[in-house]
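User: Can you help me understand a structure? I only have the sequence.
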Amino acid sequence: MSEVPTNPLVRGGRIARVGLQAGGNYLRHYVGNAMPGERFRESKEALNRKNALSLFRELSVLRGAALKLAQGLSLDTGVLPPEFAEVMANAQYRVPPMNRAMVRAQFQRIFGKPPEALFRRFDSEAFAAATIGQVHRAEAQDGQPLAVKIQYPNVRQSIESDLRLMKTLVSRLFSGEDLESHLQEVRERLLEETDYLREAEHLRHFRSFYSHPQVVVPELLSELSNERVLTMTRLEGKHLDALLQESPSQELRDQYGQILWEVFHDHLRLRHFSMHADIHPGNFLFQEGGRVGIIDFGCVKTFPEEFLESCVLLVQRFLLEDYSAFRQQLQEMRFLQGTAQAKERDDLIYRILKSLAHVVAQPYQSDHFDFGSPDFQGQLNEVFLEASQLREARGSEHFIFFNRIVFGLLSLLMKLKARVRTESASVLVREWPSLLS
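Assistant: Let's start by predicting it. Here is the structure, written out as tokens:
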């Protein structure tokens, strides 16, 4: 891999080229299937995979914000064909890495020394590579196993370039008075991810915050970390796809799912407003003994207290079947305008959000919940598909990453097909006002 291209014309041109190629592929598919005989025929599934692979290859070169979008698209939302979602999931940890010479050049530029002068052992081949940087195995001078994350050259400049392009494209596809604040929210979080000193602080913070006995967070080595290199203890474990290939027992699936569920709700229970906001399979390691390692704290979102409170109250009012208060809460959260002129549009949005609340609230309506239920996943996908047709930015910009956390968690639990004890979380949500006193 060479340096990340930063010229907006180059980056925009590569994305446009994939779009044209995909369009041509689909055109040939429909023409070929209309012709007699089997020679030109190709299944829609094979075509989807071909186009997804083309897109993934281009995004792997571009990195940055473009590849980050692919991560989000890999969640099970039912909007993308399954072939696209499967291929895009590779963006979580299977991106082609920088070559050895570039890695050495980065170390020489940052530390004034090659990596072998800093570590007892350093593996020049990355074992994980994603949107902002790649990770190498290493050993400290005392032999302790380490993970060393190195940022791609020029990635910060590439993000700025992508965001300018994204603003132009999104403005044509979406409307709404909240659109500008939503784009600014994405920009701030993405640029924060390029500051590894900030991530180092997050690592220290969450290592002390996660008090769950079966949650493991790497330990920072500050003397070998700076804005572009992050060195930490190396965690062992399997990513979700590798775990599922081994057909783990239902008991183990349930145990892992319970940990993930409790970690999320500990934030609400302890009124802790900073959350790991990059919830996808590449950032979790499932370890022997039923423990879960959490990695990559580059994307952390600190929510205003009143925002999280309004989210919990929204679910609570739905659970209490107080739909008048539920609608009023949606209006206070800027999803509904509440005017006579906007009534028809408000009614549509209210219906969709009420359907979404019906799905999301299900785990809080019993003492146990089976996230492997096909009905649950089907309902969620159906609502997402309907909501995707709105093409309008409404509500607080904080929902961008709150939704990523919530639906990222649900995606993990559904992939695990975990059966989770939900009673304490249900009580927490239902009795939320009493916790404010």
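Now, to help you interpret it: Residues 22-42 have pLDDT under 50 and may be disordered. The radius of gyration is 23 Å. Let me know which part you'd like to focus on.
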